[in-house]
Write a structure and sequence with these properties.
The structure is a homotetramer. With about 200 residues, chain A is an all-alpha fold. Chain A folds into two domains: about 55 residues, Arc Repressor Mutant, subunit A (Orthogonal Bundle); about 130 residues, Tetracycline Repressor, domain 2 (Orthogonal Bundle), CATH 1.10.357.10. In chain A, about 70% of the residues lie in helices and about 0% in strands. In chain A, helix 1 crosses helix 2, helix 1 crosses helix 4 and helix 4 crosses helix 6. Chain A starts with 9 loop residues before the first helix and ends with a helix. In chain A, about 40% of the residues are buried. Chains in contact: A-B, C-D. Chain A binds a DNA duplex (21 and 21 nucleotides) through helix 1, helix 2 and helix 3.
Chain lengths: ~200, ~200, ~200, ~200
Amino acid sequence: MTSPATHLPAKQQLKQDAILKAALTLFTQRGFHGTAVPDVAKLADVGTGTIYRYFDSKEALVNSVFQRAKTLLRDTLRVDSFDVSLPPRDLFHLFWQRLVQFADSYPLEFRFLELQDHAPYLDDISRQIELQVLLPVWQFCLDARKKGTARHMEPGALMALIWGAFVGLRKAAYTGYLTLDVEVMEKAEEACWAMFTG
Amino acid sequence: MTSPATHLPAKQQLKQDAILKAALTLFTQRGFHGTAVPDVAKLADVGTGTIYRYFDSKEALVNSVFQRAKTLLRDTLRVDSFDVSLPPRDLFHLFWQRLVQFADSYPLEFRFLELQDHAPYLDDISRQIELQVLLPVWQFCLDARKKGTARHMEPGALMALIWGAFVGLRKAAYTGYLTLDVEVMEKAEEACWAMFTG
Amino acid sequence: MTSPATHLPAKQQLKQDAILKAALTLFTQRGFHGTAVPDVAKLADVGTGTIYRYFDSKEALVNSVFQRAKTLLRDTLRVDSFDVSLPPRDLFHLFWQRLVQFADSYPLEFRFLELQDHAPYLDDISRQIELQVLLPVWQFCLDARKKGTARHMEPGALMALIWGAFVGLRKAAYTGYLTLDVEVMEKAEEACWAMFTG
Amino acid sequence: MTSPATHLPAKQQLKQDAILKAALTLFTQRGFHGTAVPDVAKLADVGTGTIYRYFDSKEALVNSVFQRAKTLLRDTLRVDSFDVSLPPRDLFHLFWQRLVQFADSYPLEFRFLELQDHAPYLDDISRQIELQVLLPVWQFCLDARKKGTARHMEPGALMALIWGAFVGLRKAAYTGYLTLDVEVMEKAEEACWAMFTG
DNA sequence: GATGAATGAGGATTCATTCAT
DNA sequence: AATGAATGAATCCTCATTCAT
C-alpha cells in the first residue's frame, strides 16, 4: 500500500484521518525530518505500529499528507469551473476570494504546502497532483493575456508573482510581523490585481 | 563559545568558512534535520570534531549560517543608504536590482533563507538580524507612502507582497516551472512596481 | 492448551493442518526467528488470530511442527518392527530404503529436522519424541554389534556417523553441489554399509 | 565498507576482533535472526554504534564471521598442500587429523559453520570462500579414485558422506548423546576410511 | 469459532556529540 | 588545534500477541 486506500470501513477511515491530521500538524510545525513517527502516533492517539498499517513508510505518509492538502487546494480554487464570460476583475476577485478562503479555512494545509520545501521526498503522484493545481491557474492567466486583460508576460511568471505575493503576505502574518484584517486583504487584492492587469 | 569567534588566525578562518559553506550547501539541499553533522564535516574536508570547536552545536551552526546569509543580504541591499531624494521609480529599480543581484550571486543563501521555515530553531541574535534586514525596507515603504508614491496600505504588508512575489518567481525557477531571462525579470519588476505604486 | 488438541472436528483439523504445513514450509525456508507469524497465517490462508486458537505461541507452533515431523520420521522408519532374524545386510537395506523414502517423500520435513539447530526452543515433549526416534536405531546398532555384524564401536557413534553421512549427502544435493540419481544412492548405501559393518 | 578492512591500527583490530568473536558466539548459540545486534555489542564490550563503524549491516557482519571461520577451516585443512606420493591411508589420516583439530580448536567456528543453514544471507564472497574449502577436498577424492584408492563413486558424493559423518558425530556430542574420547574418534576414523576406500 | 486491525515492546540502524590521541 | 573513533539515545520500522467484532 503506497497511498492510503480510498474506501475503508468508517472506523478505520476515522483512524486514518486522525493519523493524517496529526502528521499534517507536526510536519507543519517541525518539518518532515524534525518529526518522529511515534510523536505522530501519540497525537493521533493510535499505536506506533498502526501508522504502518495505513502507510508504507514515513515518506509514504508525508506524500499522502501532501496529496490531501493539494487536492483540497485544487477543490477549493476550482479554477477550471470559472465562467470566463464574466468580467476579468470579477474573475480575479473570485480567484483571490477562494485563495483567501483556503488559507483561512485550512491554515495548517496552507502552511504545510507553501512554507516548506517538499521536493526531496515527493513521489510521482504528488508531483502530478501539484500540476493539477497549477495547470488551470496557468490556463486562466494565459486566457486573460489573450483577451488583453492580463499583463503581457509569461503566464507562469505572472502566476508565480501573484501566488508568491499571497504567500508572502500570509508568511509575514504567521511570523507575527503583520495582522491581516479585512482592509489589508482588500488592499492586497487590489495590489495583486494591479500586478495582474497591464 | 555560543557564536563563532569574530576574529581568528587566517588558517582557522578558512576552516570556519569551509564549514559554514558546507553547512549552507547541505542545509539548503536537505534541510536542517535532514543533514548529518558528519556529512557537513566531510564536505568541508575537516574532522567531525572540528565542527564542535567552532560551533557549540548543530543548532548554533545553523544559526551562524542563517546570520551570515542574512547579513550578506542586508549588505547587498543597503537600503538604509538609499538616496531618498532620487525619483521613487529609480529607488525601486535600485532595490529590485540589488535583490536580483543577491539571488543571482548567492543562490544558495537565497534558497536557504527564503525556501525553508527556520523559525523552530532560530536564536535571539538570528531574529535580531532578520529585523535588521526588514526594518530599512519597511522604512523605505513607509517613506514612499508618506510621499504619496507607494500604495496606500500598511508598509509591512506592501513589503511582504513584493518580497513574496520575488520569492515566488525564483521558487518557480528552482522547481523548473520557469526560466528567468532578462525579459521576464524586467516585466516582473514592472509588475511589482505596479503593485508598489498606487 | 499447550500442544494442539489431538481430536478436532474435520473442518478444524483441516485448518490446523494448513497452519502446520505453512509453518513447516516457512520455518524450513527462513528458520524459526526469520519467519513472521502473520506470514504463516497468510500462507495457510487463515487469520492471524486463528493460529493462536490452535497454538499457544510461536514456540508452541514450532514444537508442534517439530513433533509432527519427528513422528512422521519414526513412523516411516519403524525400526522397532524390524525382523531381527533377517540377514544383517537386508536389515540395513531396509533401514536405508526407509530413510531414503522419508527424505524423498517429505523433503520439507527432512530439511527442517536435519538442517537446522532447534535446540534453543525445543520443549520436553519434543526432546522426548526425538529420543523415540533415536532409541530403536540405537537398539538396532547395539543388537548388530552383539551379533558381530556391526563395527565394534559405541552404537551411538555408529548411528551418528551413518545418519550424518546420509544428511551430508542430502545437504550437498540441496545446496546444488550434487545430483542424487539411483546410482549415487546405491553407492552411498554400500559405503555406509562398509562403515556399519566391521 | 562491505567486509572489514584487512589492516587496521592495533587498537581497532582488537575491537573488530572482539565484535567478530562476540557475533560468532551468539550466532552459534541463537542463530542469525535470533541474535540482536545490541547483544553482540554488549558481549563485545563496545557501543552498539561501533558495530556499524566496522560492518555495514547485520548481514555484512554475519558474512564476515562466516568468511573468517571458513578461511580458518581452509587454512587448518591445507588439503592442497598434501603430498600425494604418501600412502593413501596416511593421507586420509592427515585429513582426518586436521578436521579433528579444527573441530577441537575452534568449536564455535565448527558449530557455526556446520550446524546452521546460512544460505539465505550469504553474499558472493562467502560463497566463493566456501568453494575454496570444498574444491581441494573434491580434488583429493578425485585423485584417490583415479589411483584406485577411493571407492568408485562421484567424488562430491564421497566427500559429502565423509564430511557428513564427521559432522554427525560432533553434532551428537554437542547434543549430549555422546562423548568423543580418543577411542571413539579412532574407530570413527576407521569407519570413514572404510567408507572412503573400496 | 474466526478474523485481522491494533498494539507497543523490541529490533536494526543513524547521528549529535565527546574525548583520547 | 585537529581529528575521527566511539558512544548510546533516538530513529524508523517489525512482529508476536491480543481482542473487539
